[in-house]
Design goal:
DNA-binding; 3 domains; about 280 residues; transcription regulation; alpha+beta; Arc Repressor Mutant, subunit A; Homeodomain-like_sf; Jelly Rolls; HTH_AraC; Transcriptional regulator, AraC family; 4-stranded antiparallel β-sheet
Length: about 280
C-alpha cells in the first residue's frame, strides 16, 4: 500500500488508511479483513475464495468482508482512498462472546458493491485519527475498531442474520420469522414481552425461555441491539438530529439513546455521527 498510515492495537488488530494503488491486491486466508472504500472506484474487480471474479463500479462506502478462512483478491483500475481493518480470529471471537454469549459467529460477506454507511463513518473517523498531525490516540483507535467489529457481527454474522435452527425448548421456524419481521417493523413503538408472547402463542414465561434458547439472548437485549443498530445507521447518514434518531429507533429520549449506546457500544451518538 502506498501512502499508508497504520497502527496495531493491543488486541492484535491492525488498521490502515491508505491511498491503495491501482493494480491487484491479495488478502490471504489468515485473518478477518474488512475493506472500506472511502471514494468511488469504477471498474473494480473482486473475488472471494474460489468464487468467480466480479467486476462492478464500486461506490464510496462499499465494503468487502473477508472471513479468515477465505482468500480475497481485489483489482483497482485507479488508486483509491481506503481503510483496511484486520482482525485476528481470537479478537473477533472475543467480541462475539461479549455480544452473543458465544464465540460461534461466522462472518457472511455481503455482495460486492454493497454500501455500509456505518462502516464508512467509522472508516472516516479512523482516517481522521490516523492522519492527525501529532499522531493517533491508540485508545480511540482501539475503541473504533471494537465498535466496527460489533457492527460487523450484528450486520453480517448476528443470530438474526440467519434463520435459527429449531431445537427442543426453542421457537418454531414460523414463530421466529414472524417475530423478526414484527420487531424490525415496530422498532419505534413500545413493545412488551406479553405482546411478543401472544404472537408466538406462548405464555410470557414460556416465550422468554424459548426466545433466549433460539437467539442466545433475552427478548429485551435482542430488541435493544436491533434499536442500537438502527440508530447507528441513521446517525451515519447524518440527516437527522440525535433526538429524532432516538425517537425513530424506539428510545424514549436522546439521553436514553446516549446512555444505551455508551454502555453497550462504547461510544456516544455525537461521536459516532461526527467526522472531520
Amino acid at each position: 500500500m502506498a501512502d499508508a498510515s497504520t497502527i496495531s492495537t493491543l488486541r492484535g488488530a491492525v488498521v490502515a488508511y491508505s491511498l491503495t494503488p491501482s493494480g491487484s491486491h491479495t488478502f490471504p486466508a489468515s485473518h478477518h479483513v474488512v475493506y472500506v472504500g472511502l471514494e468511488s472506484a469504477p471498474g473494480t474487480c473482486a473475488r472471494l475464495g474460489d468464487s468467480k471474479a466480479e467486476r462492478y463500479d464500486a461506490p464510496a462506502g462499499d465494503i468487502i468482508v473477508k472471513p479468515a478462512h477465505l482468500e480475497a483478491r481485489l483489482h483497482l483500475s485507479k488508486a483509491r482512498e481506503s481503510a483496511i481493518i484486520i482482525y485476528p480470529d481470537d479478537s473477533l471471537k472475543e467480541l462475539a462472546r461479549q455480544q452473543f454469549g458465544s464465540e460461534q459467529a461466522e462472518l457472511r460477506p455481503p455482495p460486492f458493491g454493497a454500501v455500509d454507511h456505518t462502516a464508512l463513518r467509522i472508516a472516516q473517523l479512523l482516517k481522521a485519527e490516523l492522519t492527525r498531525e501529532h499522531g493517533p490516540s491508540e485508545y480511540f483507535v482501539e475503541r473504533l475498531i471494537a465498535i466496527l467489529g460489533v457492527h460487523l457481527l450484528h450486520a453480517y454474522a448476528a443470530p438474526d442474520d440467519t434463520e435459527p435452527q429449531p431445537f427442543k425448548g426453542g421457537l418454531t421456524r414460523k414463530a421466529t420469522r414472524s417475530l423478526q419481521n414484527f420487531l424490525r417493523a415496530n422498532l419505534a413503538q413500545k413493545i412488551s414481552v406479553n405482546e411478543l408472547a401472544a404472537l408466538a402463542n406462548l405464555s410470557p414465561r414460556q416465550f422468554t425461555h424459548a426466545f433466549t434458547k433460539t437467539f442466545g439472548k433475552s427478548p429485551h437485549r435482542y430488541l435493544l441491539d436491533l434499536r442500537l443498530d438502527h440508530a447507528a445507521g441513521l446517525l451515519a447518514e447524518g440527516q437527522l438530529t440525535i433526538a429524532d434518531v432516538a425517537y425513530l429507533s424506539g428510545f424514549s429520549s436522546q439521553s436514553h439513546l446516549t446512555a444505551a449506546m455508551k454502555k453497550h457500544r462504547g461510544i456516544t451518538p455525537t461521536l459516532l455521527r461526527s467526522s472531520s
